[in-house]
Amino acid sequence: MLLDMKHWKHVFKLDPDRELSDEQLDRLCVSGTDAIMVGGSSGVTFENTVDLLARIRRYEVPCVLEVSNLEAIVPGFDLFFIPIVLNARDPQWIVGHHHQALREYGAILDWQLVRTEGYIMMNGQSTAARITEADTALDAKDVEAYVRLADRLFHCPVVYIEYSGTFGDMELVARCKELVREARLFYGGGIDSPDKARKAAQSAHTIVVGNAVYERFEQALATVQAVQSN
Ligand code: 1GP
Question: Which positions in this protein are listed as binding Mg(2+) (predicted)?
């Protein structure tokens, strides 16, 4: 059965290149989160992605791959999220890698499982912003234009406001949510407590908790309850 993201409020993003014990993974997978997203900005390989998928597959929680590396496209996920970094200065991250991937796999891809994410990088210090050479000197109008571009022009089912590593401007995020018509607005960045999770969940449709899983595990886990009980 195809997954429907329409009701997702909370997602954990797990990095195949970072360590999690079986007990930690167990607690994340049965936490009540709506999905586990597997992805990372560096060190993601076919092997470590297969390993993590196999461990998550012991649970019922939906599991999606956010594809950031052509070498690490592993079959068997429920969905495949394809980031298009709208404010990347390096066009490889807008269409280049995608073009290469479709040369290889375009004919055999199960398109029903593919979802594009229109990414807007907001934190210039983050690894992802550096890798994509993102132009993060954006004012509110720039961001709103990118949101419309992703939602109305490109019809991306996900518009992703990415503050990775730092907690963002929730007023701006909330305005972006008002703008989208078809997409779901994902917010990620610096959610490391139930309080921040609550605030972010008021501004975005779906919040993504990444780093805190590895740095403040109990607090990260508590973000699920904070969001799902609302
Ligand atoms: C990263 O948006 C996610 O891609 C989550 O950000 O790691 O700061 O939680 P954090």
Answer: 15, 41
